[in-house]
Design a protein that fits this description.
Layout lengths: L5 H12 L7 H26 L6 H21 L22 H25 L5 H19 L12 H9 L4
Helix pairs in contact: 1-3, 2-3, 2-4, 2-6, 3-5, 4-5, 4-6
């Protein structure tokens, strides 16, 4: 099993960008949206942990932070400034962190959103290494979803950028 480190990600990006045109604007639009979903997930896991929710949430939060770092590195490499946690105000339904059941419901909703967004991006992206990284992140988001409920879908739904943006909009103000 090969782990992808930040240094490895940067090497992949450098190798892929030699003699290659920059990613199109549509790829950057997806990357910005995915970065926002990673920041949302980090915020969710931080709040769930603070509420005392049991389970492998520390690991999931660490994964979300690694996803953010990888996507942000690719954005920076291409002269794009990625959003940071302070740039977005997240909002949640009332009582979202009041107990295990409410955290589970929100976890399912957020991880389903992330999985669908990453799958949609993987279908739409044209540039490497962004497309490859996004596919790997999608696999990890599917793992996160199983923290909250068994995964039953053979073909998870890929969201369009509009659907993913609308989903994200439910948790931002």
């Amino acid at each position: 099993m090969q782990n992808l480190t930040r240094a490895g990600l940067l090497r992949l990006g450098a190798a892929a960008s030699v003699g290659v045109v920059p990613p199109p604007d549509s790829d950057f639009a997806w990357a910005r949206l995915l970065i926002a979903t990673e920041l949302l997930a980090d915020d969710f896991y931080t709040r769930a942990l603070a509420a005392g929710t049991p389970g492998p949430l520390h690991e999931a939060r660490a994964n979300e932070r690694a996803h953010y770092a990888g996507l942000a590195a690719l954005m920076n490499e291409n002269g794009q400034l990625p959003a940071q946690a302070d740039d977005i105000d997240f909002s949640y339904p009332a009582g979202a962190f009041s107990g295990r059941a409410s955290v589970r419901r929100l976890g399912v909703a957020l991880e389903t959103l992330q999985l669908g967004a990453h799958l949609g991006a993987a279908d739409a992206l044209v540039s490497e290494p962004l497309r490859g990284i996004v596919m790997r992140i999608a696999a990890n988001e599917a793992q996160h979803l199983t923290i909250f409920e068994p995964f039953h879908s053979s073909f998870p739904v890929a969201l369009t950028i509009e659907q993913a943006s609308d989903g994200l909009g439910r948790y931002t103000s």
